[in-house]
Design a protein that fits this description.
The chain has 127 residues and is mainly α. It is 57% helix and 0% strand.
């Protein structure tokens, strides 16, 4: 009987060792993936910062003003005037939906109210 107990205990210890070995290497693999993802995120954030700096450089008001002055005739640009703007009354809004007409001669049930039992027939008081 003791032999079976020792054998079962040894098998449990070996099973737990295998499980711990497997979990250890799986954890190390996940940590490696996490490090690679963090490095990728850092490089993408750095690239995004460079793109934002380039965008700010290209959209400087003095630079844009100079480009407009250089290309004013070739682009056919016109100066802004108050007549170019409209009012909210000029916007064509869609028409409201038209409700459907009820069927003629159709019997409609009264609206149900919670807690109210509808009376289907009248009962005369015998007294």
């Amino acid at each position: 009987m003791r032999t079976i107990l020792y054998l079962a205990t040894a098998l449990c210890v070996m099973g737990l060792a295998f499980w711990a070995y497997h979990v250890n290497y799986a954890t190390q693999g996940r940590q490696t993936e996490l490090r690679a993802l963090k490095n990728e995120i850092a490089s993408l954030q750095e690239g995004l910062g460079v793109l934002r700096a380039e965008w700010a450089y290209l959209n400087r008001p003095d630079r844009l003003r100079e480009l407009v002055n250089l290309n004013f005739a070739s682009l056919g640009l016109l100066p802004l005037a108050p007549e170019q703007f409209g009012s909210a009354a000029q916007v064509a809004y869609p028409a409201p939906p038209v409700p459907e007409a009820p069927l003629t001669g159709a019997i409609t049930a009264p609206p149900k109210r919670p807690g109210v039992i509808p009376v289907t027939h009248l009962v005369e008081d015998p007294l």
